Every structure is written in C-alpha cells, then in structure tokens.
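Sequence in, structure out.
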Amino acid sequence: MTPEELKKRALAYHSEGKPGKITVVPSKPCNSGDELSLAYTPGVARPCLEIREHSSDVWKYTSRGNLVAVVSDGTAVLGLGNIGPEAGLPVMEGKAVLFKHFADIDSVPICLGKVFNDRGRTDPARLIAAVECLEPTFGGINLEDIAAPACFEVESELKRRMNIPVFHDDQHGTAIISLAAILNALRLVGKKIEDCRFVVNGSGAAGIACSRFYLSAGARRENFIMCDSKGVIHRGRNDLNAQKAEFAVDTNCRTLADAMRGADIFLGFSAAKCVTPEMVGTMAPGAVIFAMANPEPEIYPDLALEAGAAVVGTGRSDFNNQINNVLGFPGIFRGALDVRASDINEEMKMAAALALAELADRPIPAGVAEELKAAYPREAAAGLFDNYRGIRPDMVIPKPFDPRVVPSVARGVAAAAMKSGVAQRRIDDLDAYEAEVAARIRRNR
C-alpha cells in the first residue's frame, strides 16, 4: 500500500458513518417505562444510597470495575510528536478500541488541554491535578503519549496519590513486551542477560523505562550505553536531566556507531534509518536488534539480518517479531481489574513479560493456528504457523491476534497482584480464571 493509499483509506475509516471509532452501548435494557424507572429516577436512587452507606458497593452497582480512562495531553504522540490533545484524540480512541476488542475492557479517551506551561510543554502539576480527580469513576488509568521528562513525574505522583492502577503504557508496555522478546532471543543465541552489552538509542519515556526494567530482570547497569540526539550520554555532559543522568557512563564512545561496536543488543526508540548495516556488522556475534521507531525503523530487518544480526524485531505489523504494546496492556489491565488491584507494580509487570515469553515457546494448537492464519495471511503463506514448536528467530514473541495472549497475561498479572499484596479480590482457581477470560473475549468478538 502506497502512502497516498494508506492516507485515503485511513481517513475514510475514521470519517465514514459515525465519525471516530467508538460509541457507548448500554449494558441493560431501557425499552419501557418500567425499565426507565429502574435505569434512572426513581430507581437509580437505591444504588446511590447503598454506595453512600458502603463506598465499596460502587464496584457492585456501577461499571467502574471494568472501566479505564485513556488519558493524554498529546505532547508525545508516537511518530508525530507534540501535536496537541485534539490531534491526539484519534490515537486514544484507537486505544479504546483495542481495550474492548482484545480484553472486553470499556475505556474512555480523555485528551486534556490547558495543562501546559508557556512553552507548550506538559506542566506536571496541572496534569496530575486533573487526572487525580478521575478516580471515583474509573477502575484504572492508562496514561498515553505524554512527553518526557514530565511523564515520569506525572506517573509516579499519580501512583502515590491514587488507589487504582496508574500505568504509563509508553514506558512500561514497551518495556514488558521488549523484555519478553529479549529473553527469548537470548535463549536462541545462548547468552545471559547479565552478560550482555546494551545500546539504547533514544532517551525518552520508552528508552528510560525499558532500561530500568531490563536492570530489574538481571542486566547490569555498567553494560548500558544510552544515546540521545546529541550522541552518547556520558558523564562529561552537562545538559542531562535526572533520568538521562541515571544512565550516564564513563566512556570514550561519543557516537551511536562507537557505542555499537561489540554490543550484544541494540534497542531503538529513536529515528528512521539511523543504523547502518556497517554498524550492525561491528556488533558481537549473535546480535539482537529491536528497531522500534515508527513508522520507519532504525534499520530494516532484511538489512540487519544480511549484516549479521541473529534476531531482529520492529514496531511494525508487516515484519516478524513485532514489539506491539497491544500484547501487554489489555491483559495487564484485565488481570488488574479482575482482582481490583490498587496498583500495577513491578511484580505484575514482570509476570506479564514472563507470561509472554513462555507463551511464545508453546506449541500452537490447530484452532489457534487457524485464527492466526486468518489474521496474518502473508505469514501464513510463508508457513510461519505450520508445525510450530518453540521459539525461533522469526518468532520470539507471540502475535497480537493470538487468542491466548490476554488470558495468559491476565492470569500472570492477577497472580502477581495477589502475591504482592495489592489485590483486593482473590481468585482461587487460576486455571478456571484463564479459561473464563478466554471465553469472555470470544463472546465479545
């Protein structure tokens, strides 16, 4: 599809029929005077009074337990930058579509204006104050497309103030999915994460959060070199914010090309075509490359593989090993909501990553293979789903339309929430729960 064809089809998709991509559908009938009296006055007073007497009954009598706010100020929209809240609304609507389709979670896109400083950038205090007020209505908050470094303060302060899960998907979703892919890629090349040298190109929300998460999985801080638009982040620089300074190193490397020599893993959250085949050729044997810039990756997979990389992934659906956040947030919130978690903590995030890594190594049942073939005809024609047994270089992470993803992730997250003490409801039979989630999603589709 040419860029012009894509533009034409995308604009038609978003404008034809009802503008946008979401609508509100009642979950109860309201087709008679009697039902009207239950849905609204006078009947609605009864649950109101019950909730006033017992505040926890809000979860029993309202949709709050399955409702997530998708909140953005439009300052860091993927691939587009600071385009503002109005222009960011189609992305948040899209997120709501994915929540519903993949996990049967209802969500509301909320794009906030008037939360900026005089330079047009996020004012953390204003954004925090606005989002904090949403707590009585929602079971969770998904923060989206908020520019760094403000996003770090916004999320950490909201997590401190609010008693429902707050999750900045640009940070943690990418970290979770990419770690799962890294763990499986390293199994294929026979390396341990603690021994690997990382090069991270891009020091925004995703680059910082991913690096922190890899450290919690066993990577060593001294093995990281992070780069931004000015080159290597080293201790001799005096232009670093607190998050970049966290990853500043003593090194003679000054450019991305310098940093990549001898590296085991390259992670790109940066700009198109900034990595050359020659740079890949200087990496260590068995190099792993996840080039996640969109819409064009830092290096295209065919070039990276020809230059000697062992495993390559991108953020795009038209290449193998797509690092797509939809593998994470629907199942993560499904599990968190179902145990009424007060937080999405490190244990829950790690459980999600391990669930994805493990799922990629399972055989694909015949029924699942048929669903995957329907969703991915190009890969099906290449035999990707035939006689699948275990991870391989072109499939170190599950596909988003694998129906096992959300139930598996939700199970892991729910179990971790209970074990770590942030769950307010218990699930005693996790096997039954995973099956129930799978059945619920099938009914919703």
